[in-house]
Amino acid sequence: MGSDWTAQDLREFLRRGWALDEAESQSSKLKNRDSSVAIERPCKAGDGIYVPTSEQRTEARSVGSKVLSDGGCSRFVPASGAASRMFAALHHALVPLEEKALQFRSQDFPFWSSCQRQALMTLSPRERATQACAWILDPKSGYGHLPKGLIPFHRYPDDTSRCSFEEHAMEWELLAGRSPLHFTVSERHQQRIQSIWKSEDVDITTSVQSPSTDTLAWDLRSETFARNVDGSLLFRPGGHGALLTNLAEMKTPFIFIRNIDNVVPARLMAARNEEQLVLLGRCAALVRERDVLLNRPDRGASDWIRDASEWVKSFDANSSNVSSVDELVGLLDRPVRVAGMVKNKGAEGGGPFWIRQANGRVVPSIVESAELLVGGLNGGTHFNPVDLVCNVQRVDGSLYDILQFSNERRYFTGDKDWNGKGIRILERPGLWNGGMDEWLTQFVEVPSTTFAPVKTVFDLLDPIRLG
Q1: Residues 355, 363: contact at Cβ < 8 Å?
Q2: Sequential DSSP letters for 91-126
């Protein structure tokens, strides 16, 4: 197979830091599509999802507040995605509800300048919708080419607006003061994004996805690798799982993770931060329990084996089959994550599931819709809003190499159109899916108010967006 690579291909591999094995491995994944997740059952309240009582929530908030005051926390926000998908509906015929929103409310979008807003208000409903679409989709001055994080999401009474980068920074400062905040961004817009805070005394940093995490694509017609018109291989970003290398560079014991489009205006931030304290407190409690077991002087004795086996059960439903001390220590000595889960209102697809790993362990895991077989098991009661608190500190105070706790077999493939051609794309194991496959995981039910994403431009007209 190696002889099929051209000299230019090999130079591209070298530029990305790839050994030839990496290209061959991607070739096999694209052709065989043999990734799979063995689903046991959905996680539900009392069976994989922890639902704290009022007293337990109060205790967790107290613990979380203490952890924050001691320092050692940071937030990691994947934010490299473009806003094009957010405006995709405007390229096609709109459903009546969307058409009506454009005609009668498009002047309320928070990203307009004052002049644009005033101009829209003078137009008839039909003209207003037409003009709004024209401005939004303009190839030069429109919004689709921008990162989602640069789109103003909220307008305030003083006529100022804030993009989600700014709202994330404010919400994080209200929770954690000047603790580190990190965004992963596109290289093209990195300088502009960094300029948002250049005059402020804040610990806000950015990074870009490493070229080493790019992936190849497969041409479905020619049954060979997809190539650009100049004959060079088509390389694509490797999905949010490629950000595992960026996450591994974080240097704090506790790391909060939340998506760039999940933000609220200032008036709702305090309530959301109360829920963050619950997740942090729960994560800290689990870490403390783990460390107590690993530090016990009777480690290896029968009482220790009993206690360790009992504790591990919530992270591995098959742990009763483990009896050796080394195996138990191996199950304990892992990064910890607590992931908030929101009650599902009826949507099918991915979320929290018990899965069976190749080694026989049955563990709680976040499973994407793409990993579920068509017509396969759904029936979940909760979904994943991407609201995590992670701890990556070993019992001795050093940090785990989190790259060692990923499952490379949980990659994604999908068929797409590219320049009129059918191609198969490859994405690395999702950051909070296969990327954290070997972590100690606990799901915690959180209120639906913690989840306020902007998926389409029409979400910006929701009353929750009023600053």
Answers
A1: yes
A2: GSPPPHHHHHHHHHHGGG-TTS-HHHHHHHHTS-HH
Per DSSP, the three-state class of 354 is strand
**360: DSSP letter:** S
Q: How far apart are CA 147 and CA 433, in angstroms?
A: 24
Q: What are phi and psi of 455, to 5 degrees?
A: -95, -35
Q: What are phi and psi of 440, to 5 degrees?
A: -80, 120
3 state SS of 327? helix
The arithmetic mean of pLDDT across residues 75-93, rounded, is 93
Q: Each residue of 34-55: pLDDT tens digit?
A: 777 999 999 999 999 999 999 9
Average pLDDT for 410-424: 93
Interval 96-118: pLDDT, tens: 999 999 999 999 999 999 999 99
pLDDT on residue 370: 82
Q: What are the angstrom distances between the C-alpha of 41 and each of 44, 177, 338, 434? A: 9, 40, 19, 17
Q: Which residues contact 397 (CB under 8 A, 6 or more apart)?
A: none
Please, which pLDDT band fits residue 345 given cuts at 50, 70 and 90? confident
Taking residue 343's Cβ as centre, other Cβ atoms within 10 Å add up to 13
What confidence tens digit (pLDDT) does each residue in 285-298 have? 999 999 999 999 99
Measuring CA to CA, which residue among 153, 339, 417 is closest to residue 264? 153
Q: What 3-state DSSP class applies to 14?
A: helix
- What distance in Å separates the CA atoms of residue 86 and residue 345, rounded to the nearest whole number? 22
| Sequence spans of domains, the chain | 25-72+211-465, 84-145
CB atoms within 10 A of CB 401: 11
